[in-house]
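Final paragraph of the annual report: two paired records, presented back to back.
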Amino acid sequence: MQPVVIYAANAGFKLRSPLWRQGEAIQVVLQLEPFAVGLAPYLTGHHRLLTALTWLWIALLVASPLLLVVTGWRRTVLVAAYAVVHVGMAATLRLGLFPLVSVAVLVPFLPPAVWDRLEGLLAGPARAATAFADDALAEPAPWRLPPWLARSARRLGTVAVTVVLVASLLWPAAALGLPAVPTAAEQSAPDYTWNLFAPHPSTHHRWIVAPATLSTGERVDALDGSAVTWERPPDAGETYPNALWHRYVVDLRAGTVDDPRPLGAYLCRRGVPGRSAAIDTVAFYVLEAPVRAVGGGERRRIEYVDRECRR
């Protein structure tokens, strides 16, 4: 149920986006250097193909409730289509474990015929495992729950499953604005999103620079100890030490980080990798430039930290 809810919510976000409705979104996303890897650079020149893939993915998201309706080979084809898309994400975008987890959660949707076929292929090992399990289960259970406790556990389990199911439906609905969420709840709710690259996918490359002056007078980048440069790197994604840094920069630009000053304190304490000298001063900048798909343009430099470390 949960994958269907996620797909449906994501369809709602994407249908609100002009870039997705016009078929331009995947073209833009594959040009975002912090995300683009693998096959992405080879696909960005095939505009018509990416337009078709954009509309195809929206169609699959809208059709996601069919996972709960269709059976047999039709469901197998549908599950395979979603799996292929997620494998394609892994081959083109830096999304961590998300594509692999997405493929894994599709496995329960495979119909019995697929499992029967798999069982036939693994008949020998399966028979041995079944025989072992039968022997183990044949032994009498040393202890059983009292009948009244077993009934209470079943009732509690039913209530828990119902609550989880209702929450899984209301949570993405609230994210879409259906129904309206009270202001206090919006402010206190965790910042979990259902809107991968929607409704407004970023149209800018972003990279980070953290110029630091050491106690020796040397000026280096505090993130990796390299020389400070403001030029756009060959791969903007390489300027982020890891995925958490990239997520933090996304939050900075989205305005969801209330106070970036702790970042400056962290950089001071962290020091420069490979350098023993302490940091005297450090700054932190996010630089961004529009992708080619939206016409390109001049880069912009945004300062978030500028502080002395020795106080």
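The closing record of the year follows.
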Amino acid sequence: MINFRISKEYSNAYIKCQSRDLGNEIEISKCNLNFQTRTHNPSHLYGISYIFRINWFTKYQFVKYIIKFTIDGDPSKTLDFTLINLTIDCKTCLHKCEWINPTAVQKSGSLHSNTLIYPCSSDYLNYTYLYTTAVSTNAIDILSSPNPPPRQEFYRTRYISIVTFMVVPLMSLLIYMMLKRRQQSR
């Protein structure tokens, strides 16, 4: 269970989500949002159907994202989520995923959409291997099509191949040197 509470002088909001450990990933889903705009106003409860997945070994950074949800199909009723600078860090990070929206362009969302949002892994936004300098950049909208164009897949595969061919010989050489040094010290 994940809980998040915001309280201000005259209003408050509460988000409660379910989470599941999937091994190398965590899935966050079935979020309920309860908010009250004024102290004496009734509270409102809405379900958020998006499914979020994050990798245990990836550091995530979301900067300047504004997601606007229309409530009950009425354009005059909206719920805006603003992420100024959110970082999700891990102890043993191997990758870094950055979603940076420098101009703070608003995105539209639907509370009833059950779209899977898997930052960087499925839509190929800025994804960096922390032990290399290989970066794949593409500004695909957070709530757009989850399928990357074939050309993007080719470039991502090429970067992974280049990194693999650079890292494997280097690691082999380091292991060989360590073993040789250990044998000489005996």
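Confidence is low (pLDDT under 50) at residues 127-165. This concludes the annual technical report; the extension proposal builds directly on these records.
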